[in-house]
Amino acid sequence: MKQLTLLLLTILVYSCQNPSSNKKDEALNRDLISVTDSISQLMSMFHYNPEELKTEQYFELEEKVLALAKSAKTNQEFVNGFNAVWSEGPFSHVRLSMAERSAEEMADFIDSIRVGEQSVSLDWIDKNAILTVSTMTGVDTKERVFQAYRDIDKNNAQSLIIDLRKNKGGTFAGVPLIGHILSDSVDAGVFVSRKWWENNSRAPQLSDGEGLSSWHGWSIKTFWKDVQQEPLTRVKFGPMNPHFEGPVYVLISTETASAAEFAVDALAREKKVTIIGETSAGEMLSQKMYDLPNGFQLSVPIAEYYSSRIGRIEGKGVKPDIQIDQRVALDLALSIINEEKLEDVIPKLEAKLDEMDVEPFSGEKLYLFGSMNDWGKKWNDTPEFTYKGNGVFETVTTFQKGNYEFKIAPMSWDFDFGANSSKQNVSVGKKTSLVRVPGSSNLMINVEDEVKLKFTLDVRNEKAETLIVSKI
Question: Hey, which bits of 150-194 come out as E strands?
Answer without folding.
Answer: 159-163, 186-193
